Amino acid sequence: AQSVTQLDSQVPVFEEAPVELRCNYSSSVSVYLFWYVQYPNQGLQLLLKYLSGSTLVKGINGFEAEFNKSQTSFHLRKPSVHISDTAEYFCAVSRTSYDKVIFGPGTSLSVIP
Amino acid sequence: GAGVSQSPSNKVTEKGKDVELRCDPISGHTALYWYRQSLGQGLEFLIYFQGNSAPDKSGLPSDRFSAERTGGSVSTLTIQRTQQEDSAVYLCASSRDRTSGTEQYFGPGTRLTVT
Asked: What's residue B100's pLDDT?
């Protein structure tokens, strides 16, 4: 079975500062990795995904994530955050290309002006 | 084209009543997923459809929950004899097919409140 850990439930950061949201996963098989974002009162939106290939993945809105197989991590980063990045961020894994997605508990990012 | 749509957007029901939640996937998407988002449990998988069949129902929390999909399109999630712990946002997602199922597009959700 797969599981996802997001150690930081809340991350406050000042505007224009860099941010890293941590994600670790557990799986006995290869997995696909995702980051989703949920803005207040909105649905889930895919930020980026890792399927294979380059371990550095670039997504929308200036976010990127790096897959580290040895550390079973998939941390999300942005060099300079904006107020509009305030949202809930979910790391997720999927065992196959059509399997259900297992979500982490989420990290609430608050950008402080 | 249009995204995944869900109806109703909000539903308030009395404990013990049955409710039906509807999902309209993106046209042409053969895979459809139901998830539940609640304060205490986070985002949980409920059921997955490929076409009209459901190869994975492992997330349905009890036999009060059922889902069907007709014509490879619209899906209905039914909760019988609702309980207060069923209060949550129910999310539907769809993806193109089995091989590209990695990218799931989510609907806005139905917020269910059981009083």
From this structure: 58
Tell me if B114 sits within 8 A of B11, measured CB to CB.
Answer: no
Asked if A100 lies within 8 A of B56 by C-beta distance, the reply is: yes
The nearest alpha carbon in chain B to A92 belongs to B43
Task: State the first-to-last Cα distance of chain B, in angstroms, to the nearest integer.
Answer: 37
pLDDT at B104: 86
- How far is Cα B38 from Cα A58, in angstroms, rounded to an integer? 30
Burial class of residue B6, CB neighbours in 10 A (0-12, 13-18, 19+): buried
d(CA B62, CA A68): 37
Among A2-16, A41-55, B72-86, the least confident range: A41-55
A 57-76: CB under 8 A from B: none
| DSSP letter string, A7-33 | --SEEEEETT--EEE--EEE-SS--EE
Tens digits of residue pLDDT in B2-25: 899 999 999 999 999 999 999 999
Residue with structure tokens 């406050």?
A12
Q: What is the pLDDT of residue B66?
A: 97
**A-B Cβ pairs (cutoff 8 Å, strict):** 57
Q: Mutation test of the interface with chain A: which of B29, B33, B43, choosing the one with the most A Cβ atoms within 10 A?
A: B43
